[in-house]
Prior knowledge:
This protein is α+β, with helices and mostly antiparallel strands. The protein has helices at about 25-30, 35-85, 105-110, 110-125, 140-145, 145-150, 160, 280-300, 305-310, 315-330; strands spanning about 1-5, 10, 25, 165-170, 180-185, 195-205, 220-225, 240-245, 255-260, 335-340. It has a single domain, classed as Nucleosome assembly protein (Arylsulfatase, C-terminal domain, 2-Layer Sandwich).
Amino acid sequence: xxxxxxxxxxxxxxxxxxxxxxxxxxxxxxxxxxxxxxxxxxxxxxxxxxxxxxxxxxxxxxxxxxxxxxxxxxxxxxxxxxxxxxxxxxxxxxxxxxxxxxxxxxxxxxxxxxxxxxxxxxxxxxxxxxxxxxxxxxxxxxxxxxxxxxxxxxxxxxxxxxxxxxxxxxxxxxxxxxxxxxxxxxxxxxxxxxxxxxxxxxxxxxxxxxxxxxxxxxxxxxxxxxxxxxxxxxxxxxxxxxxxxxxxxxxxxxxxxxxxxxxxxxxxxxxxxxxxxxxxxxxxxxxxxxxxxxxxxxxxxxxxxxxxxxxxxxxxxxxxxxxxxxxxxxxxxxxxxxxxxxxxxxxxxx
Length: 350
């Protein structure tokens, strides 16, 4: 999610004692109405506010370093998760022990289960069932369950994502510009040669010199994908079409074949670049903001809580959170300004 702004820059909505909302008033107009001596003191307060913003920026830089430190502690657990998912290791009986909230219901149905087990055993004797390796289609199931990801997913993407072994988040090294990288690890497959596909999200944590009071923490400012080394004829990000062309002079008709862009999740690795003259339009801005939101969601939710998205438990939590947010507001906002900044960037500190 991204922070939603309801007022444009330089505008402010005042409320009078009677509860009626006045027309938006420009800040500069309000300052011009102040006595000169008071205005002078307000300017001093603004200078202090800029200093506060600079200190806050340093705070978030240190938090980024703390995230990097703890990412190293999480990684062995995520590596073990990958090994179990791919079937590289089989967890012990002790590691598989888990208390379920539905345990009582399971006990009540135990007799039914025993009878079913006897029937299954008889069937297995006749036609032995192959023991699946690891947790089949672990990441693909997550993609199909999460709305934000399923909207990007196409039918031709699914066979490829069955080969996805792991998704990892890597933070920039100390002293380097603030960023994080999403790594998608694939087993050998018949679609491309890459073992890892990457997406780098570049960030900054500093107040804008032209608008320092808008600073609310680190923001994603750009992203960079990677080149996918597709096998011949396997690139799902393009499709081949045939088009008839008529010669203006002779009137003859010929058929030409060309490749055009195709909807695919793997376009995620060929992102729209940041603001420039060619992409400075509403569609590009929306695409860029959506890309940032997806990257943030992978980092903050999908990767740390993958098993809960696989089982659907995290989906229930997300739905409850969204419902609570909607109930708190008077009504759903229909016209909003979206800024390219993650909502709840620091969930442990908010």
